[in-house]
Design a protein that fits this description.
An eight-stranded mixed β-sheet has the order 17-1-4-3-2-7-6-18, with no helix packed on it. It folds into three domains: 103 residues; 66 residues, Molybdopterin biosynthesis moea protein, domain 2 (Alpha-Beta Complex), CATH 3.90.105; 137 residues. The protein contains seven helices and 18 strands. Helix 4 runs antiparallel to helix 6.
Length: 406
């Protein structure tokens, strides 16, 4: 019996140990404890919406997490230091050109996400091949030159053009060119040997790879976007500033339209009143010009010629007046069309502003619903208890002092 109990206890201990080991292995695999991680850092204006442990995204995937957030010294050019890690194999997407850190808003409450972008060109930020520094003579004596690559950019004597780019395979012709440039030592990678951890990191200032240490992380530039709440506050402020001007412009347009309508009615009335006078004048002209009529009986030949010239000028004046009235009406119609376009544009802007105000109103209503839900929650209900309101007692129940009785 004792032997059976001993075997049973031993088997239970083995099962518990195996289960615990499997749990640790599964947790380590899920959290990436055994996966190689490449560290990076960037700078931000503020740490709003960021905290240690937040995921880092790349092309929509969670590829790492934030490991450190700290404030820079007061005299420093940047405000906040943000350090993060990228898991394998996603750090292979980050190159020296095209890869940046985007700090974008995630919700209306100020939460922000950290996202890195895929590189377009340049060099890998980290390398896993052994880094060596050799003289030109040692490089020429290497047994297999094709398995080695340059670990730096080498420029010409003037320093304007690149003579040899990094990660270019070694060759004897390139070594001769470097000897002509006066180079004595070069940095190279042995591409046939791969390490599990980073061996070197690219230095953007020196334009070469350096031996990796925990103190020389790669710096990714940041593209920071303000939080959505800040942008909404700024937009609401601009709308509040512009709204009085829009209302004043609308009032001015209304007054202009009323004046235009009044002017049109006056022009119509003037035209109606001028029609009888014009018809009478035409009849008088025909009577005066007719042969054997009143014109020949009242006026001499010279006076008739002068009268004909006067009537001709009057006719031309009436025709010009008619033409001017038509032109004025056309210009007035164009002005009305322009006013209609301005009014439609203002209407569209007001509708857009109305949508913005409606969105803000909906956000406020949702926030109020959220607070009301918190008040009804069993855990937070006690924090929202209303204080009792003390009301004065009626006069018949109130204590009266002896002095007041007197």
């Amino acid at each position: 019996m004792e032997r059976a109990v001993g075997w049973f206890v031993l088997l239970a201990i083995l099962l518990l140990t195996g289960g615990f080991a499997y749990y640790l292995y599964n947790t380590a695999e899920r959290k990436g404890w055994f996966v190689t991680k490449a560290p990076y850092f960037t700078f931000a204006e503020r740490a709003t919406g960021l905290k240690v442990g937040d995921p880092v995204k790349l092309m929509g995937f969670d590829v790492g997490q934030i490991t450190r957030i700290d404030a820079m010294p007061p005299y420093h050019a940047f405000n906040v230091y943000v350090e993060f890690e990228i898991k394998a194999p996603y750090y292979g997407y980050l190159w020296t050109e095209g890869s940046v850190v985007k700090l974008t808003p995630a919700d209306l409450f100020g939460q922000r996400t950290l996202e890195v972008t895929k590189g377009t060109k340049g060099y890998p930020t980290y390398m896993f091949n052994p880094l060596q520094e050799l003289t030109l003579g040692e490089a020429e004596n290497l047994p297999h030159l094709d398995r080695f690559k340059f670990a730096e950019e080498i420029r010409n004597l003037n320093g304007t053009n690149i003579a040899v780019r990094a990660l270019t395979p070694l060759s004897r012709d390139l070594l001769k060119q470097l000897a002509a440039l006066g180079r004595e030592r070069i940095r190279v990678f042995d591409t046939h040997e791969q390490k599990k951890t980073m061996t070197s990191v690219w230095n953007d200032f020196e334009k070469r790879y350096e031996t990796y240490a925990r103190t020389n992380l790669y710096w990714l530039l940041s593209d920071e976007t303000p939080a959505l709440s800040e942008r909404l506050d700024k937009l609401v402020g601009e709308v509040e500033k512009a709204l009085p001007n829009v209302i004043a412009l609308t009032n001015q347009l209304a007054v202009t339209l009323e004046n235009t309508a009044l002017l049109s009615s006056n022009l119509n009335r003037l035209t109606v009143q001028a029609e009888p006078a014009v018809s009478n004048l035409v009849a008088l002209t025909s009577e005066l010009r007719g042969a054997g009529r009143l014109g020949q009986w009242l006026f001499t030949t010279t006076q008739q010629a002068q009268l004909d010239a006067t009537l001709t000028n009057l006719n031309v004046l009436l025709m010009n007046t008619d033409t001017n009235v038509v032109a004025l009406a056309q210009r007035l119609a164009e002005s009305l069309e322009n006013l209609a376009c301005i009014t439609s544009n203002l209407n569209a802007q007001l509708q857009a502003n109305t949508n913005i105000v409606k969105s803000l109103s909906d956000a406020i209503l949702h926030a109020d619903e959220f607070v009301q839900g918190l008040k009804r929650h069993w855990l937070l209900r006690s924090a929202f208890k209303q204080r009792p309101v003390f009301q004065p007692l009626p006069a018949d129940r109130r204590f009266v002092s002896p002095k007041e009785k007197d």
